[in-house]
Task: structure prediction
Amino acid sequence: MKIIVVEDEIRICEGICRLIEKISDNYEVVATADNGEDGLSLILKHSPDIVITDIMMPGMNGLEMLTELKKKDRMPKVIVISAYSEFSYAQEAMRLGVREYLTKPITIGELTQTLSSLEDEISDNDGVPETLSSLNNIFLGIINGIIDVDEKLGQYLDNRHGIKKDTVFVELVAYLGYYYEENAETVKETIDKILGHVKGTEYIILELPKEMSLLALVYKCADPDELEKHIKINVQRNPPNLKKVCPGMIRAEGPGNIQGSYRIINSYLHWNMIFGDGVIITFPQVAEIKVKSCEYPADTENLMKTSLYSMDKAATLNSVKKFEDYFFDGSLYNPQVIKEAYTRFVWAAFGILKEISGFEHIAAHQKQLIEKIDAAKSSGEMRGILDMVFGSLFENSKEDENIGLTVKRTVNMIHEFYKDGITLDEIADRLGITPEYLSAQFQKEMGLNFSTYIRNYRIGKAKLMLVGSNMKVYEIAAEVGYSDPKYFSRVFRQVTGQKPDEYRKTQK
Result:
């Protein structure tokens, strides 16, 4: 794959070339240019497969260069990069037929994915439609049941990627639950590090937002047994990014079986509520676990009913805690049995609330909460469900005039400690509730998630400092809770569309 880079900033140009070298030996940068005129000449001379070009350059800019190429019918596959994220530039690039548009700074992950996508389009697709030619799209289609692995697709995977009908896949799934939107990118990076350290391994990481999961599919490795041992060891080390993650692992023989295997391991992930952080659920081993029998704590349910009838907050919450502690005492109970017990307990609570004046409306959430119990995979989610029932009950009861107190206290803590990088978990711990419940309540009452709110609050403070002071950007970054000025600038641009220095110039 021949590539030409057209970029007027030398350091950025060199950086892109180094990234390309790291990504694959199949990619070769045959020439570079620092302006559109030289770029046009080099492209016509070398006929590259891919051109990576900036937009704003001295003399002929990137869009003008592409316009000339289009006139000459010599348009290659193009990746446009620019610090200018305004839609007008992207719109003009798309008019010229460019579909890949990246904003600076470029990450190796973004560049890898984009180059891979373009490489798939350029290669002979053996009759596979262009929309399916990306390996990422193919695997997503298989997992979601949209694509069948027929003879034609099987032949394409074999010819293009060396994936045969009996290739052994190692599937690593990471269920993030409520934390998907907030932590998906960092968990993805951690999985990438774990798998990337194994020589000769080829894999792809799929994002499954509807199932709040990431799925890594390893389709090439020297020894699946050694790979699985490596994954287990690194997960058991319990990196910070893997906390609150429910991991599972299973093998599949051939691309036609990866969906079925994923569904199997997904159905066993609720064992994480028993084993907790640092333990990866593996199939078929999980199916052989011998469980301890347990009886439903009917006496605790009766205590809950009695205290609810009298609207005794302390007694009710004490009975709920006693119920939770009964199941999560370290014993190997079948998680399905625990779910059935939770359903029964919540059902009993709703039965009482229907009879108490002022709480009939709560029954409207009964079906939704039962579905949450059925879908839960961690002890935190299970505890959070009871918080949703009983915590919100007393928070909004007639005896408590501070409606929404939990979220108000959360906002106050954000405003007080945002400089210190306070987290959702820390606030939940201070309030004595589960992070899952706090996350759900915050989203419900504020209309956006915790991480987005604290990010916007910090950027808002930064805007005031940029306009109202002469502080340097790195000083402002530290003042609003960002230890890395480069990361602060990237976040600032994502929120405002401008770099901090650019924002300061436009506002003064």
Residues 124-133, 396-403 have pLDDT under 50 and may be disordered. Residues 298-395 form one domain. The beta strands are 2-6, 28-33, 50-54, 77-82, 100-103, 168-175, 202-208, 213-220, 246-253, 281-282.
